[in-house]
Write a structure and sequence with these properties.
With about 190 residues, this protein is of the alpha+beta class. Helix content is about 20%, strand content about 15%. It is globular, with a radius of gyration of 18 Å.
Length: about 190
């Protein structure tokens, strides 16, 4: 396993779980399975700890890692959802992430040809950008994915256990201008 050497063409992905952030340099056309292999190798070397600073054991294989994208990139507190590139791998294992019915019937079957499904299997094809934030998890990593938490709109929450750092966490002072929402300069 070799890591992507940073260059002007590589992107940096920020992969988050718990309070840990792993920065990976990736080629924008690199497939998500190879990104998972890079993440797995990084976690083997550094480890992952939960909120109580206890080590979390890694899954048996990089393919057991799931990646999620923010529900709203402008509001990270709205959480994360399973990335659309993960659905094809779940279907191959016999799981149906969206339930039964039209959602599964509407998706094209996998074939040997290069098509829309394979294009979405890379950061650029999935609509990500340089510096994108993705969450990662796997069964047994201490996430609350098995809990039934219902959101205000009636949907079930997709738990990723990402703890977002705040200005207050670091400095003990509340800063209301963290996201640039202050008044315009009048001079």
């Amino acid at each position: 396993m070799t890591f992507t050497t940073p260059s002007a063409q590589t992107w940096t992905l920020r992969l988050k779980s718990q309070k840990t952030t792993v920065l990976l340099h990736v080629d924008p056309l690199q497939t998500f399975p190879t990104i998972k292999e890079q993440l797995y190798k990084s976690l083997e070397e550094t480890g992952l700890k939960n909120a109580d600073s206890e080590p979390i054991s890694l899954p048996p294989s990089p393919s057991d890692i799931e990646l999620g994208r923010p529900v709203n990139t402008n509001d990270p507190h709205k959480g994360f959802q399973l990335g659309e590139w993960e659905y094809s791998s779940l279907e191959e294992e016999g799981e149906d992430p969206k339930g039964k019915g039209k959602a599964k019937a509407g998706r094209p079957k996998k074939s040997g040809t290069v098509g829309a499904d394979s294009v979405k299997d890379c950061p650029k094809g999935a609509g990500l950008r340089d510096g994108a934030v993705l969450a990662f998890r796997w069964k047994g990593n201490g996430s609350r994915e098995d809990e039934d938490i219902e959101m205000a709109d009636g949907r079930k929450a997709d738990m990723w256990d990402v703890k977002l750092a705040s200005y207050e966490d670091n400095y003990g002072v509340e800063n209301e201008m963290d996201v640039g929402g202050g008044r315009e300069f009048e001079g």
